[in-house]
Amino acid sequence: MTDTTHTVEKIGGTSMSRVHILRDTLFLREGVREIYGRVFVVSAFGGITDLLLEHKKSGEPGVYAQFASAHSGHGWHEGLSRVAEAMRAAHRVVLAHPADVEQADTFVADRIEGTRNCLIDLQRLCSYGHFRLSEHMLQIRELLSGLGEAHSAFATTLMLHRAGVNARFVDLSGWRDEGDLSLEARIRAAMSGVDPQTEMPIVTGYAQCAEGLMNEFDRGYSEVTFSTLAALTGAREAVIHKEFHLSSADPKLVGQGAVQKLGRTNFDVADQLSNMGMEAIHPKAAKTLRQADVPLRVTNAFEPDDPGTLIDDRPAETPAVEIVTGLEIIALEVFEQDMVGVKGYDAAILEVLTRHDVRIVSKTSNANTITHYVDAPLKVMRRVERDLSALYPTAQISARPLAMASVIGRDLNGLSVLTRGLQALEANGMACLGAAQGPRNVDVQFILNRDDLGRAVKALHGGLIGAAQTGKSPLRTAA
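Request: output the structure for the sequence above.
Response:
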């Protein structure tokens, strides 16, 4: 199908747990006669993927981690049973009719027990010396990931059927599918014959494909599925429904009354936000939409009448600071007196960081010092330090926990953001350990003590955005 009159819309896991609340406002659109022309991509219900894989924040092992570390071969069974219980509890919140609950229960039993049998068979096979379980772990992660989205999509379809919507469950998870399709081929096959103008497709956020989404994107896969679907079907617009608006700062840090909705920005700003760990959308997904010329809209799912923030390639009409955000980082500093004039240090350090899968946020260097600001656990950085010390035994190498506050906008030209930012930090009693502004003038980064991050974001927002709102400075909000 290719129909530029439709939209492709994604709902995140936290919002999915309250999808029954969204039924009338988002899906049925109270006061709007036409409800079709929309394709929905859904995440798993909140917490389900944590139970299937591992907790995203705490790292507490889920079924995947339990299976990977099981010596007796049975430790993961209870984990899988806990997933089934959590799934049943989740769809009981969403579904009111007993017949729908029964169908959803049957669906969960089929998928969970099918997965259990698959893992038992795999363990049995790998008990023979010719087969290695480690060679199948990525496929296991893919299999488990697809369970959550398939369940939420199926339950949502049942809920909409009960409300009189011609909804269609579109399962991209490859359940019991012997084919080995590319992502594009799987989406095209699943959407073949689908007419969004007369039905409402509810699509799984996970898509099984030959490329293996988990291998490159891990838990960012749903946005890749979402963006590829929007691009392939020629969507008029891609929409992400979150539980909050894309705002000028975190309201928890600067106050709900102080922040403002962005309203409009571009993919360049979205990339800077991703670099700071505040993803409006996964960078790969943003690239797919940008190249297909499909604009992205980020809305608050629970404020359906608000248009949210539109993200496209349009430049700013006037220079403006749009958002202030921050990230806890580690400063990896390599000082070598003999570095000056010698090539190769950069490449060697980068090779070590890449080998340990360390994400680089920013970097500075001078004659004899190279500093990478990275987003990684301190225990990983200790291993990096050890490897670099072996390479450069006379160098002084340190990994220091710090923080980075970033001021971002489509066009910061002429706004003296670096100077005004330093003044705002000093006025609030904070020492800036470093600062950088590139010639493209889309972001300015301030390096601070980690304990100062929250106060720094608040001070920068008040000095660069809050003052603009009250007319106390020449800075203006994004247009």
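DSSP finds 17 helices and 14 strands in the chain.
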